Amino acid sequence: MANGQETSQTLRPTWFEIDLGAIRHNFRELRRLVGPAVAIYACMKRNAYGCGIVPVSKACLEEGAAGIAVGSANDAVAMRIGGIHASILVYPACLADAAPLFERHDLIPTISTEDDAQAWNAELTKPREVFLKVDVGLFRAGTMYNQADRFFSAVKAMPKLKPIGIYSHFFSYGADQSPQNYHWQFRNFEEVIARAKNVGMGGLLYMVSSTNAVLDFPQMDLAGVDPGRLLFGLGASATGARSGTFRPALSAFKSRIVTLKSTGPLRLSEYRPPIPVRDNMRIGVLPLGWGDGLPRKVGSAAAVLVRGRRAPLLDPIHLEHSRIDLTEIVDAAIGDEVVIVGRQGAAEITLREVVENWGIDEATFHGGMRDHITRIYV
Ligand SMILES: Cc1ncc(COP(=O)(O)O)c(C=O)c1O
User: What angle do CA 112, 139, 152 make, to 5 degrees?
Assistant: First the structure.
């Protein structure tokens, strides 16, 4: 049992290395691209894309973020407990019964519909700054752009709601990356701004652009932007409209060999085990499994680095363990560092290689970075 002397590495030697310098660099690149006048709300959804909301948000705020935007009140509260006093915008994530929590922690709720406006106005004890959300083509949260008039008028009649901004989020995932997709949605947002001005809601912070649009459509910056992936080195321009060098926030995903043995002779002529073991195969075991975000099957090309060489990572992955084939790495020993993503000596396994083997993309990997795994900031 832990006696307080052990480090998290002793308890479970599997960890992420997060490069805060890369995140700061990415923020500065973003600032260079959008210029000094645009407010940057750093989108730190899913515990800062798995990188740890408190240190990452602090870094972005020190670099000049106007605020932090999150997709869950848990992350917002974690920031307050972590000593962050900046503006925190919470995307639609809770019901109005969370109003006391928003008041206690001074959080900015998103009001998405007329019903929402009524409920928050009833639950809040005093006036609170809020953001309004409209839907310009994502078909998720927010009032449809073509019904914004009524929504804005309803909000205006609510004495406890003090709108400071109106935002939306583009449909930017999946097949339709055509400029028409963005232009259509942006036109819808321009219509929303006109409607807001018509009902006397001019001069608010209008915000619609995140990673893809920031890189590809500079004219869509408006007064504020709220990119997420780009800050973690997960964005790339499709049109070349803006180019920046964005570095990966995840510099390594590592573990250690906790068991190492040889199978010895197996009498395989009598029985074939369900996994491809061989006589005298040397198997290493890692404290790392599908409970840590790996898929159950990593694919036949999956490998890790041990002593600067590639060792196959073997299917299937178990809940908290996995196997590697160390037969060829004869000097491998218990306790050796194992690199799942990152460099070791001259060798490297990139996140791209890993996600290709797993059949996912890099942002999905970040979304699956589990909070129980130790994060080391480098
Ligand atoms: C409302 C909102 N704004 C901004 C973002 C950040 O998007 P991206 O990571 O593409 O920059 C998201 C991501 O899901 C979002 O939901």
Answer: 30
CA 210 to chain centre: 13
- With a 6 Å cutoff on the Cβ, whether 375 touches ligand 1 is no
Per-residue pLDDT averaged across 229-253, rounded?
94
3-state secondary structure of 227: coil
Residue 68 zone, left/alpha/beta (φ > 0; ψ -120 to 50; rest) = beta
Q: What is the DSSP letter of 147?
A: G
**pLDDT tens readout for residues 123-176:** 999 999 999 999 999 999 999 999 999 999 999 999 999 999 999 999 987 656
Strands (E), 299-366: 303-306, 309-314, 322-325, 337-344, 347-349
Give DSSP secondary structure letters for 88-105.
Answer: EEEPS-S-GGGHHHHHHT
Go through the domains of the chain in sequence order and give each one's CATH number: 20-232 (3.20.20.10), 250-377 (2.40.37.10)
Cβ(210) – ligand 1 distance below 6 Å: yes
Specify the pTM: 0.95
Cβ-Cβ contacts under 8 Å for 119 (sequence gap 6 or more): 95, 96
Given the CA of residue 230, which atom of ligand 1 is nearest to it? Answer: 11
